[in-house]
C-alpha cells in the first residue's frame, strides 16, 4: 500500500449536458502538503473537488485515499474518510447560531438524548479561539455575521470533524489582509499536523507565498504540476491562460472632473457611524478597511438598499435620498454587491435574463423585449469580460463561480450608470479576466463615470484607485492620495495604528 499520497485522483471524467467539465484529469496531494489548484474560471477546479467530496459522481476515474481505492458515492463517505471541503458559497444555516452551525450534524452526542448546550458553546468558543477569532460569539446567529466571519465558521466546522484533507475553494476572497495572514498562519499550523491541504485561488501572490506545489487545469484538462520553487509567476500565468499577460493593470487616461456625489455624516444601523466622502466624475475612488469596518453597509445605505438613519447625499448638485435601489438606478447610480449569491444574481433565472436585467430599456420597445436584440446585447456584453458559458438560455447556476461574478458585473457595465459602486468586483475572477475588468473600469472612468471601488485586495486598490478612503469601525479614518497609497499607510489607518 503506497501511503506517499493522501489523495490520488486518476483519469477523472465529468460532463454536464455535453459540457466536458473534466477530461482525464489526475491530481495527487501528500500529507502535510499545501497544494494549489489553479486555472481560469470554468477550468474545472470546483468540479474536481466536488467529485472528491462525493457531491457529484464522476463519469469515470479512480480515487485512492492513503493508497486505498475508494468509491466515494456520497458526501458522508467522503467526510468519514476525513475529507472536508469549504466551497466559495458557504453551506451555513443563517438562522442558526455559530455553535449550532459548527456542530450541525452532531448536535446530540453519541448515546445521548439531549443537546448539551454548555459543551456546544464551549467547544465552539475553543475552536474560534484557536483560529484567533475569539471575538465571534458562539450564540450569534450566522446570518448576522459578515461574510468573512461566516468563512471562519465554515473552517471551524471542518476542523471540528478532524479533517485529514482540507480543501479551501478561494478562502481568501472574502477576507481582508489581516484575516488572510491569520488564515495563512492557521493553514501552516494544519500542514505541520500532517493535514493535506488543497488551496484553490486566483491570487498569484498567495500561491507563491503559501503553497508547496501547484497543479494547473485548463478547459477541463490537466496541464501540468510544478513544485512552487521551480516556476515563476509569469510562467504560471502563461500555463493557465495560454498567453502572456502584458499588463494586469492597464493605464488610464481619465480626466478627473467635478464632484458628482457627496455624502455627509451618513449614519445607518450599528455599522455606519458618521461617514463623509465625495467622488468626482472620471475618478476611481477606493474604499479600504478591515472586515466589519462598515464599507459595504455604507454603500448599501447610500444606494437605498438599507435604511439611512441620518446624513445627507448631494448628487449632481441636488440633495437627494434614494428611497430604494430602483430609485438609485433610475438616477444612474449602480451597485455591484459583494454577496453574489444573495444579491448579485437571480440564481433561478437564465444567463441572458441576468445580464440584461438592468438594461431592459435598451432591448425593448413599448415594453416588449426584442429577443434578437436581447441576445446580441447579452453576447456582446459577456464577451467584453471573456465570460465562459455554454448556452445563454441556461440557468446562471450552471456557471462556475467566477463566470457568475462576470455576469453580475456585466449587467452593471451595461447599465449606463453615472456613479457605479463596485463592492469587491474581482472576487473569484481569474487573472486574465481581472485584466479585462480593470480595462472596463478604466473605460468607464474615461467616459466620465465616477467609480467607487470597495476592495480588500491591496494590489488592486493601489494600482486602480486615484484616491482611497479608509474606514475603521464605521467611520472614515483617513483619505490617501495616489502618492501616499501604499500597504503600510492603508493597513496602518485600517488598524488604527496611524
Ligand atoms: N451544474 C452544472 N451544470 C452545467 N455545467 C456546469 C455545472 N457545474 C459546472 N459546470 C460547468 O463545468 C465547467 C467547470 O466548472 P467549475 O465550476 O469546475 O470551474 P472552476 O475552475 O471551479 O471555475 P471558477 O474559477 O470560476 O470557480 C464550467 O464550464 C461550468 O460552466
UniProtKB/TrEMBL annotation:
Record-annotated ABC transporter domain positions: 7-244, 251-498
Molecular functions per Gene Ontology: ATP binding
Question: Origin, by domain of life?
Answer: Bacteria
What InterPro entries has UniProt attached to this entry? AAA+_ATPase, ABC_carbohydrate_import_ATPase, ABC_transporter-like_ATP-bd, ABC_transporter-like_CS, P-loop_NTPase
UniProt keyword annotations, A-Z: ATP-binding, Cell membrane, Membrane, Nucleotide-binding, Repeat, Sugar transport, Translocase, Transport
Which Pfam families has this protein been placed in? ABC_tran
PANTHER family recorded for this chain? CARBOHYDRATE TRANSPORT ATP-BINDING PROTEIN MG119-RELATED (PTHR43790), D-ALLOSE IMPORT ATP-BINDING PROTEIN ALSA-RELATED (PTHR43790:SF3)
| Full protein name | Sugar ABC transporter ATP-binding protein
Amino acid at each position: 500500500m503506497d501511503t506517499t499520497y493522501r489523495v490520488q485522483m486518476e483519469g477523472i471524467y465529468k460532463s454536464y449536458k455535453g459540457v466536458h467539465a473534466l477530461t482525464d484529469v489526475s491530481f495527487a496531494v501528500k500529507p502535510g502538503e499545501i497544494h494549489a489548484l489553479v486555472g481560469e474560471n470554468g477550468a474545472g477546479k470546483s468540479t474536481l473537488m466536488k467529485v472528491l467530496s462525493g457531491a457529484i459522481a464522476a463519469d469515470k476515474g479512480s480515487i485512492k485515499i492513503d493508497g486505498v481505492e475508494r468509491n466515494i458515492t456520497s458526501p458522508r463517505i467522503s467526510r468519514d474518510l476525513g475529507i472536508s471541503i469549504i466551497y466559495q458559497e458557504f453551506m451555513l444555516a443563517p438562522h442558526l447560531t455559530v455553535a449550532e452551525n459548527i456542530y450541525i450534524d452532531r448536535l446530540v452526542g453519541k448515546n445521548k438524548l439531549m443537546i448539551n448546550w454548555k459543551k456546544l458553546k464551549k467547544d465552539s468558543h475553543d475552536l474560534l479561539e484557536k483560529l484567533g477569532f475569539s471575538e465571534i460569539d458562539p450564540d450569534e446567529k450566522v446570518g448576522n455575521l459578515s461574510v468573512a466571519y461566516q468563512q471562519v465558521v465554515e473552517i471551524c466546522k471542518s476542523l471540528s470533524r478532524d479533517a485529514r484533507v482540507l480543501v479551501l475553494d478561494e478562502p481568501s476572497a472574502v477576507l481582508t489582509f489581516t484575516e488572510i495572514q491569520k488564515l495563512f498562519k492557521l493553514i501552516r499550523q494544519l500542514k505541520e499536523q500532517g493535514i493535506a491541504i488543497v488551496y484553490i485561488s486566483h491570487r498569484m501572490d498567495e500561491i507563491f507565498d503559501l503553497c508547496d506545489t501547484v497543479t494547473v487545469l485548463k478547459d477541463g484538462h490537466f496541464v501540468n504540476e510544478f513544485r512552487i520553487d521551480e516556476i515563476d509567476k509569469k510562467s504560471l500565468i502563461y500555463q493557465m491562460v495560454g498567453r502572456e499577460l502584458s499588463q494586469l493593470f492597464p493605464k488610464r487616461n481619465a480626466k478627473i472632473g467635478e464632484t458628482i456625489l457627496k455624502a455627509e455624516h451618513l449614519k445607518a444601523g450599528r455599522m455606519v457611524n458618521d461617514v463623509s466622502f465625495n467622488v468626482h466624475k472620471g475618478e476611481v475612488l477606493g474604499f479600504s478597511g478591515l472586515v466589519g469596518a462598515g464599507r459595504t453597509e455604507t454603500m448599501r445605505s447610500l444606494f437605498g438598499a438599507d435604511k439611512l438613519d441620518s446624513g445627507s447625499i448631494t448628487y449632481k448638485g441636488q440633495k437627494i435620498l434614494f428611497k430604494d435601489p430602483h430609485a438609485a438606478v433610475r438616477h444612474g447610480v449602480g451597485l455591484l454587491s459583494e454577496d453574489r449569491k444573495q444579491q448579485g444574481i437571480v440564481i433561478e433565472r437564465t444567463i441572458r435574463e441576468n445580464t440584461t436585467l438592468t438594461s431592459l430599456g435598451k432591448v425593448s420597445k413599448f415594453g416588449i423585449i426584442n429577443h434578437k436584440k436581447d441576445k446580441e446585447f447579452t453576447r456582446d456584453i459577456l464577451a467584453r469580460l471573456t465570460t465562459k458559458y455554454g448556452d445563454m438560455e441556461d440557468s446562471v447556476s450552471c456557471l462556475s463561480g467566477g463566470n457568475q461574478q462576470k455576469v453580475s458585473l456585466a449587467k452593471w457595465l451595461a447599465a449606463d450608470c453615472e456613479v457605479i459602486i463596485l463592492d469587491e468586483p474581482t472576487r473569484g475572477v481569474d487573472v486574465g479576466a481581472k485584466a479585462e475588468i480593470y480595462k472596463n473600469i478604466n473605460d468607464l472612468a474615461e467616459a466620465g463615470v465616477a467609480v467607487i471601488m470597495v476592495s480588500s485586495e491591496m494590489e488592486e486598490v493601489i494600482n486602480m484607485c486615484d484616491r482611497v478612503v479608509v474606514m475603521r469601525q464605521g467611520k472614515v479614518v483617513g483619505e490617501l492620495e495616489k502618492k501616499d497609497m501604499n500597504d503600510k499607510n492603508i493597513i496602518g489607518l485600517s488598524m488604527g495604528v496611524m
